[in-house]
Structure formats: C-alpha cells, structure tokens
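Quick log. Single chain, no ligands specified.
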Amino acid sequence: MGNSNNETKIQGPAMTWKCTVCGFIFTGETPPGGCPNCHSPSGEFIHEKEYVPFTYDGEPFEVLLINGSTHRAGNTGVMTEVAEEVLRERGVTYRRFNLNEYRIDHCWCCYAVRAQSCDYPCRNPNDDMHVFHQMLAASKAVIVASPINWNTMSARLKIFLDRTTCMQNLYHLKKPGLTEAKIVGILVCGHEDGGIQTAMDIFLNFQQMGYILAPFGIAYRTHGAEFNSNADREFFRSDELLKSYTKGVVTNLIEMMRLNPEKHLKGKLIPVSE
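-> predicted structure:
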C-alpha cells in the first residue's frame, strides 16, 4: 500500500481572478484572501472570463438596481442586497448591476461643442453605457445605491450619470423623451458626513430626466467619524436601522410604481430641464 503522506495532492485548474476595484490579476484555484494591491477583501474578485459584449436582451423588467460603489461587496453592497431581498419578496422583476464590473467611459461632452451632437443613442457605442441607456428606457423605476465619497457620490456613479446626458437632452432637441414619470429611489451609506448631500446630487440628475422621487424615497446611514473605518463593514452588516430604512425606500418605490405614473403622465408633462 502506498503511504498517504507521500501521495501527491491533485490540484484543480488554475483560474484567473480580477479585483474589480483596482484591476489586480491573480491566478489560482480560488481568489486570494484579499487584494495585495488595494487591500480590498476577497469578495471584490470575480472570475476573469473571455470577454463577451454586454447586451440587453430586450426582455421587459420593472426595476433597474444600480450599485454605484467602487466596492461591489462593500457597505453599499449591503444596502443593495437588502433592496434585492425586498424586490424578490414582492415579486418585482429587476436587474442588479455593480458598476465596477462594467466599462463606462467618461462623457465626451458633445453638448458643449454642438447641442445637436448630444443625442440618443449616445455617440460612444464602444463601451457598456449604451446598454444601460436601453435598460433605463425599458424599466419602470431605478434604485441607485452609492457610498459617500468626499460628501458626494462615487466617481464611478458620477461618470454613469454624466453619460445619461444624451437621454436628458432629448427634451432640448424637441424629441420624445424616454424617461419622464419613471420612479427613482436612492440609498446612501458612508463613514461620516454627506448623506443627504450625496442623495440630492444623485436625485438632481434623475429629476432633470423627468423621474419622480418615490415618497420617502431617500435613505442614508452613516457610521460616524469617531469610529475607525475598519469597523464600518461590521456595523453596516448588522445595523437594523440601515435594513429598515432600505426596506422602506424599496417598498415605497414599489407602491409608487404600481400606480403607473408613467402611463398617466407621459405626454402630458412640460419638460423643464437645463
């Protein structure tokens, strides 16, 4: 009989893992315990597969759920997960996306050169944003979750919202709009100050596209500057108030969506948009 101490352990196939925060590449059977480059935990790694173009299949759904954080599995992800739980429980069709898994280029600011050049579809068809444009037009409501970065939204989310200009500009070009009277709910969390500022910065973008804020449609939760940020993750994952606030916003958005304001108001509103 062979000695088990001398048996060779069979290794599984090596795979490539990518940190969605900084892009660090790791090769192994499983992702590393954390990123050696940006120190993000292992939950930020995804299996790096052969590139498949991002597309929308055209199937109708009700809610577009956006995690705008740089960290897909971080504190903002907690709010996003709670939102998903409510949507599933209420039987609402939805699609969730973590922005750091997609390529969204900066806005070319075509409007600043020639207003007519900022049109729908966007003049940049080479990244993933044109697919999000399609889903914004197809969905009835949007839930946006964001961290607080320097008293406002994340850079990733800001670029995403900049890229909605082509949809907002339809009203200036006297073309039929694609977003008026849809519903938006906003979820924000962060280490310290800036919750309501962040939420209002996000809402202003959607308001300019004709979205309606759900009643009690903003929730924000902070941990506090007196605590070390290392403790934020444990705090947010166990915080009942964060869960309660998030469930409230999503429930209110669903109830507002059920009234179908888009059906009743589309074509009757006068766009007032800068």
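The domain at 13-47 is CATH 2.20.28.10 (Rubrerythrin, domain 2).
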